[in-house]
Amino acid sequence: MIRAVTFDCWGTLLLDSPGSDEQGYRRQRLAGIEAVLTAWGLTVSPRDLDRAYTAAGQRLARIWQDRRDVPVSRHVTALLRALDPELPGRLDAATMEELVDAYSRPALRVPPASDGGAAAVLGELAGRGCALGVVSNIMRTPGEALKAILDRSGLLAPFKVLTFSDECGIRKPDPEIFLLTLRQFGVPPEDAIHVGDDPVLDVEGARDAGMRVIQVTPTGRATGPVKPDAVVTGLGELPAALGRLGW
After folding, report:
1. From residue 69, how far is each of 72, 97, 120, 187, 201 by CA, in Å?
2. Phi and psi at residue 7, in whole multiples of 5°?
3. Distance between CA 50 and CA 59 in Å, rounded?
4. pLDDT tens digits, one per residue of 200-229
C-alpha cells in the first residue's frame, strides 16, 4: 500500500541541482551583502567578501557532514565573522535582517525552473488520496524561500508537510528527517515512497528510513551503490512507476 509520497526539492521538483544554489546565486548574494554593509558604513572589497563566503561555506560543510543544519542567519553570521570576528556584535538587528534577506532571496528574484510535469502529477496523487510531502536539504536558500518558489510554480498547495533541513536541524541522508515527516502524516515507512535524485541523500537516506525510493535521473538509469525501487527521467513518469510498485 502506498499512502504517502515525499519529494526532494533541488534536482527533483526543481530542475536545477543543489550546486546551482551554492554557486549560481553567489554573485547576487555577495552584491546584496556588499550593498547593505556599504549603506551601514563599512567598505568591503569584493575579494574579501568572496573569501568570507568560501570560509562560511567551509564551516557549513563541517556541520553538514554530521547530518545537521542551521538557519541561514547563522550562515550570514559565519560570513561576517570571516570578515571581522567582532562585526556581528557591532551590527544592529535591522541591518542583520537586511543581510539575511540579501543572502536568502536571490533564488526568488531569478527562480529555478520546475519540472513541467510536476503540477499534474501532484494533483493526480492528491486526488487519489496520497499524502504528499517535501523532504529537502537546503544549500544557501532557506526553506521559507523554497516554499515561495514552489508556490509561484503552482506546486505548493498539494503538500501537507514540508520538511526543510534548516528548519528541523537535520539533513538527509539521516533517516530521522524522513521519519519525522512521516510521523506528521501518521504513515509508517513501509507505506511511503520517497522521490529524489541523489543516490546517497535520497536513495540511501530514504531506504535507511524503511521507505521505498524512486530515483530521478536524466538517463533513466540508477546511480549509486544502493538500487532504488524504480527510476524515472522526470516526474511525468511517476504515476506509471508507482503503478508498477502497487499503487
Report:
1. 9, 20, 32, 25, 14
2. -130, 140
3. 15
4. 999 999 999 999 999 999 999 999 999 999
Residue 173 and residue 96 share a domain: no
Q: Are residues 222 and 126 in the same domain?
A: yes
pTM above 0.85, yes or no: yes
What pLDDT score does 246 carry? 84
**Dihedrals φ, ψ of 148, to 5°?**
-65, -40
Give me the number of domains the chain comprises: 2
Ranking 18-22, 65-69, 156-160, 173-177 by mean pLDDT, the lowest is 18-22
* CA 104 to mean position of chain CA atoms: 13
Q: Say if residues 57 and 75 touch (Cβ distance below 8 Å).
A: no
Cα–Cα distance for residue pair 220/91, rounded to 1 Å: 50
pLDDT at 22 over 90: no
Give residue 210's domain range.
4-17+113-244
Give dist(CA 212, CA 229) in Å, integer: 6
Do 124 and 79 share a domain, yes or no? no
Q: What is the pLDDT of residue 193?
A: 98
